[in-house]
Amino acid sequence: MCLAPLISHAQSARKSTGNELIFSNVGFFTILILLILVIVFLIIRIKQITKQLSTQQQQLEKLSRIDDQTQLFNKWYFLKRLYEDFELYLRNPQTEAVLLMIDLDHFKNINETYGHASGDLVLEIVARIITQRTRKTDLCARYGGKEFLLLLRNTNADNAFKLAEELRADIQATKIQLADENINITCSIGIAAYNKQLQTCHDWIQYADKAMHLSKRKGRNRSTVHQAD
Q1: Distance (Å, rounded) from C-alpha 154 to C-alpha 133?
Q2: What's the CA gap between 130 and 170, in Å, rounded?
Q3: Cα(146)–Cα(31) distance, rounded to whole angstroms?
Q4: How many Cβ atoms are within 10 Å of 138's Cβ, its own excluded?
Q5: Can you tell me the distance from the alpha carbon of 224 to that of 75, in angstroms, rounded to the nearest whole number?
Q6: If 73 and its partner were Cys, which of 4, 135, 141, 182 is the partner (CB 3.0–4.6 Å)?
């Protein structure tokens, strides 16, 4: 019996099996590399998405506490922080702190004469003056359409009055170009120091508001300190 054909067939089979193993190994490593690349891509993409979400979250948090027009704190965030501070003051009655209520005089005339865009510009300029004059520890907010409310921490009424007068003078001295002319604006300021008779932070705000309206009644463009009963 001739063994040559069988040997030849066996050798051919071994070669075929070897080739299949080689191709099988090549396919395995190709798939492995592709999987690794996919995993790396997914990791990079997840990091990008996480960063984007973090940025968006920060932007949302900023929008929730910053007044877009003036870049000062908005009313609701200010009240939240004031309430937190007030709770601390109740436990430490000797704390010195002062509220300043600033109201722009005749602001309605600016909007009616020059337009609301000009009114917005005035608000931005006043906000910059407030930011430049106050400390980082102070809390400054746009409280209403033309009102600003400041919490001066670790400050007594005398120093608060000095700051109020500096702010008032700076605002009055600033020339603002509206249309084809330069104008000056003034403000009326109310000052209310913290005292242990206060029951709520809203009472405190009312005292500052009353002092501001007293400045209005006295002729505007002045600062008035609330006198406790």
Answers
A1: 16
A2: 9
A3: 67
A4: 19
A5: 22
A6: 141
Dig out the tokens for 219 from the structure: 């002729």
The runs of H, that is alpha helices, within 66-156 are 75-91, 107-114, 116-133
Mean pLDDT of 32-61: 69
- Strand pairing class (181-183; 176-178): antiparallel
Lowest mean pLDDT among 7-16, 68-77, 139-148: 7-16
pTM of the predicted model as reported, rounded to 2 decimal places: 0.74
| 154 — pLDDT class (breaks 50, 70, 90) | very high
CA 118 – CA 139 distance, rounded (Å): 26
DSSP state of 193: E
- What is the spatial distance between Cα 135 and Cα 143, in angstroms, rounded to a whole number? 18
Closest by CA position to 139, among listed 185, 204, 91:
204
Concatenated DSSP letters of 21-83: HHHHHHHHHHHHHHHHHHHHHHHHHHHHHHHHHHHHHHHHHHHHHB-TTTSSBPHHHHHHHHH
Tell me: pLDDT of 103 over 60. yes
Q: What percentage of the chain exceeds 90 in pLDDT?
A: 66
Give dist(CA 153, CA 98) in Å, integer: 7
Residue 1 has pLDDT above 60, yes or no: no
Dihedral in degrees, nearest 10, Cα atoms 127, 153, 88, 190: -60
Which helix (DSSP H) or strand (DSSP E) does residue 101 occupy?
strand 97-104
How many Å apart are CA 84 and CA 203, to the nearest integer?
Answer: 15
